[in-house]
Model the fold of this input.
Amino acid sequence: MATVQLINVSKSYDKVETVHDINLNIEDKEFMVLVGPSGCGKSTTLRMIAGLEDITSGQLLIDGRDVTDVAPQKRDIAMVFQSYALYPHMTAYNNMAFGLRKTTTLAKSEIDRRVREAAEILHITDLLERRPKALSGGERQRVAIGRALVRQPKVFLFDEPLSNLDAKLRNRMRGELKRLHQELGLTVIYVTHDQIEAMTLGTRVATMSKGHLQQVGAPMDIYMNPANTFVATFIGSPEMSLVHCRAGAGGLIGHPSFNAEIQTGQPLAGDVILGVRPEEFSFSARGMARGRVERAELIGAEAIVEVMLDKDRITVRSPVSDAPKPGSDVGVNFDMRRARLFDARNGQAIASGI
Ligand SMILES: Nc1ncnc2c1ncn2[C@@H]1O[C@H](COP(=O)(O)OP(=O)(O)OP(=O)(O)O)[C@@H](O)[C@H]1O
Ligand SMILES: [Mg+2]
Done:
């Protein structure tokens, strides 16, 4: 068993708070991804869990035990960094065995067994006698993961472990990490700024912005029901379009580009922002809205088309055959039932369509 609980966790540097009041429960065997833009406090949060940063206020529990003030090496946690931090003068084998030799009383034979088992799992058995400079980026990353695996910790922490790899290798390692998590039943907390990595790896995703936790949920739940306009536009690529509408009476909304007011099916207290995913728009001469095409990118089978609906820029994913030319006037359609509604005053979701 390994659960991790953050209770009202905050971090200040020189009295400036950078992580604010985080409450998060990570379940046993969960793959929790912390995702958000650069500087939002992901690494700081992870480092507080590892014990590499003090927790300014709040509590951290591992398996229900308060470890807020427990030294990092006594937390039963292993961390894998973006930089791998391997010892350059040691072989892959010794890089993996070193921590066990230093910090445990395990017999040599048990250390050997664990290193060889981890190497098998990571497909690096043939590389064990090589030093880091004779390994590729992906192979180094495997050694760094192996070093964490041999310790058999309760919880694995990863801070952007794939960001130094090229796109193809990153993709493959993503698959490997997913496999390891499933096969070995690991509890993982994984930091990335890449929302695609978050969506594909996480059993749940915690989205952060400016030191605040915005929303926690299964990837598709967050994608389908973002809690606010930040999450709506951060998760999903191309991003969700936001159309700023005026609220009329009886749940109707209006916009300078709409041909008529649209019924939301909701009683509305004030102006709203309509959120529509790129795949939910289509071009149609008799569409609900009219706009001017700004840009059209043809990417293989489909086109990504940016259209101005008055002052709002929307993004439409369409078949190449339907893609209009830049500068043309187009009709745009969307299914109101699949659109999201946000309160224009604070960006919070008010309902999930009709
Ligand atoms: N030692 C420090 N002293 C002062 N401020 C710090 C310190 N470490 C981090 N910060 C600040 O805390 C905020 C959060 O930093 P953090 O490294 O957690 O961001 P991040 O989400 O991991 O970003 P990135 O995606 O760029 O790695 C930033 O504004 C950063 O400047
Ligand atoms: Mg970071």
